[in-house]
Amino acid sequence: MGAGHAHPLYRDGTSRVHRLPAETKVIALVTFVLAVVATPRETFWPYAAFAAVLVAVWLVAGIPLRWILPRMLIEVPFVVLAVLLPFAEGGERVAVAGLHLSVPGLWAAWGIVVKGTLGVAASLTFAATTSSRALPLALSRLGVPGLVTSIVVLMIRYVDVLTAEVRRMRMARLSRGDSPRALHQIGAIATGVGGLFLRSYERGERVYLAMASRGFDGRVPELALAGGPARAVAADWRAALLPAAAAVVIVAAAWTWR
């Protein structure tokens, strides 16, 4: 958890996107996602335009498609939910391959899948080009409350600790004959999750008491995050907000020509 700490999704690089201050990328990400969410789902072409914007950023940042696609599997639960909506929703029905599906359910499923996919892809782009050490500093510069910034800092620092704890607990269960895929082991898995929660809670208390005894007052001073990039200048904001501006133009055109 030293200076070289980096999250698993970060791709080390020297591209223009990598070098941009993190606060500019945070604003660009939020603007892009809001534009995608605000786009009417009944209009199809804007989503292709959003995808083109993301592909252009990937080209500039040197992020290959083979890196992005496997990590987008995180949205599978939402896709499963979307697949069920045409069967569960009411309203007008339409026959598709012998199945009577709900028209509102189909639109809802389309909206969830396309907007969720674009949101996940944008978030992965941000994660791939922004180190974990730069994020707290960016939030501080953007005026995010100190308590929230502190939570983010501690989460980044200790997520690897909890991941290692999960691995050790799983290894201990397997060495005692546990079969994680067996249905009758669900009780043991639930007990393990509860144990992990208690250990994490107790660890958090100990860390907080140790920090409080050393004068921690809930704020993360910028000096504590030394080594981060310099503050963004006008050229940085223009470069970072270019994809976000394109997304705003797309959503405005989508509503105008709807």
Structure description:
- This protein has 258 residues and is mostly helical.
- It is globular and about 60 Å long.
- α3 packs antiparallel against α10.
- It is built from ten helices and two strands.
- The chain has two domains: 144 residues, no CATH class; 81 residues, no CATH class.
- The model has no long low-confidence stretch (mean pLDDT 83).
- A two-stranded antiparallel sheet has the order 1-2.
Task: Kindly summarize this structure in a few lines.
With 258 residues, this protein is mainly alpha-helical. The chain has helices at residues 16-19, 22-38, 45-61, 65-71, 76-88, 103-129, 134-141, 146-175, 186-212, 234-256, and strands at 93-96, 99-102.
- Report the strand count: 2
Radius of gyration: 22 Å
Number of domains: 2
Give the overall average pLDDT: 83
Number of helices: 10
Identify low-pLDDT runs. none
Order of helices and strands: HHHHHEEHHHHH
The termini sit apart by 50 Å
What structural class do helix, strand and pairing data support? Answer: mainly alpha
Helix coverage percent of residues? 55-70%
User: Assembly type of the shown chains?
Assistant: single chain
Output the strand order for the largest sheet.
1-2
Beta fraction of the residues?
under 5%
Shape: globular
Please describe the biggest sheet, giving its number of strands, its sense, and whether it closes into a barrel: 2 strands, antiparallel
InterPro entries: ABC/ECF_trnsptr_transmembrane, ECF_CbiQ, ECF_transporter_component
Keywords: Cell membrane, Membrane, Transmembrane, Transmembrane helix
GO biological process, one term: cobalt ion transport
Main location: membrane
